[in-house]
């Protein structure tokens, strides 16, 4: 998995791309490091370039959500497609995450 | 020949020889100020050289490196005998001696699995590139040119002994881990119902149950179990813990323990069971770890399947020629506090099939990197049922292996349950 960060004054968008799996724990630590923001800041995961996510990858979304909650950040995911969309749908993520589509 | 003592264990402080090291440093401390790294006192070196002078010189150099266990050989037969009796960690082999062809000895040692990893340092007066190539082709680990320089000789011997010691350490570690994993694997296989017990349970309830349970590594995070709680109802529980390997397997054991401690009355209601398991698992699992799960109760009395699911792969129900996927959406077990689950009731009559599988099966990639997917697996199930109506699961697994390989990247559970 690769990621890039797009900054705006009150929000940070993280574009995840490729396959997000068990092997990406270290990369994901760098993603979480971008959550060092003031309370109220908006963090968005853009999943439109993500091709696949396994159970470890879905676990990383849960960690991101928890990190955002602890820091009082506004966290959303958006743009999931195909297999990624199917997985977050069957995991009923819409009941636990802000899905901004 | 006629060496009364082939093995000479030299005292550490041999006053006759001092290394070319700065004055005042003890034997073996340093040669030309070279760092001497790990102690080599426990290492054994076999010198295959028939010149008394060379033996003495090499022995002295080895002693400076801290190596005191040295044995000698001057014929091919002696080399073989000393390898067995002395078990050296390294062989210093002269390429050409009157009674031994060092190149041939080296080649034959490499043909024997016992000596394939033994460091063999060949010494030669012929230092042409051709000669060196011949030595390496015969399996020499390294070469030392004659006349032998103490600094180079010690450095090379030390390098190969250290390397060997690291390889041995790694190998021992690997063997221990493999042994532990084999044991853990046997324990994990014991989590799923024992075949004879399962067959008896299936018989009592008019079911045919065919199952596959495989871990991609030695152990993994899948498990399933079945139990009966009265004369007409059988519960089937299948779960897949997030991640892979040991951590996932430990979590699978945790979930299994929670399940076996669940009072029977809580097993009757699938949604309630998942809610309870979510709470209990949530207290145990670290953030970001969870399980996907399916729990269904097959009820013969009213020809139905009552089930609840936590983001499990969609189970397939086959009725005659109709194959359809069930909705198995739900929040992960152990991920969020207070998750609620929904019961679904679907018909499951005599002759109908319930096919459960883990995502290791549906997410398998073919040679072109394309994922099978749940649609693809449903087609595969339909074909398998048509090809082999009596035992569709082995046919399905064979078709799956043909397209996606035997070696899968994830754990696989597959359960083909038919009401007779």
TrEMBL record, chain B:
Which Gene3D superfamilies does the protein's record reference? 3.40.50.2300, PPM-type phosphatase domain
Superkingdom of the source species = Bacteria
List UniProt keywords, sorted A-Z.
Answer: Hydrolase, Phosphoprotein
Family matches, as SMART domains = PP2C_SIG (SM00331), REC (SM00448)
One family from Pfam that matches here is Response_reg
Record PTM 4-aspartylphosphate, positions in chain: 94
Where does the record place the Response regulatory domain?
Answer: 44-161
Q: What is this protein called?
A: Fused response regulator/phosphatase
Q: What is the lineage of its organism?
A: Bacteria, Pseudomonadati, Pseudomonadota, Alphaproteobacteria, Rhodospirillales
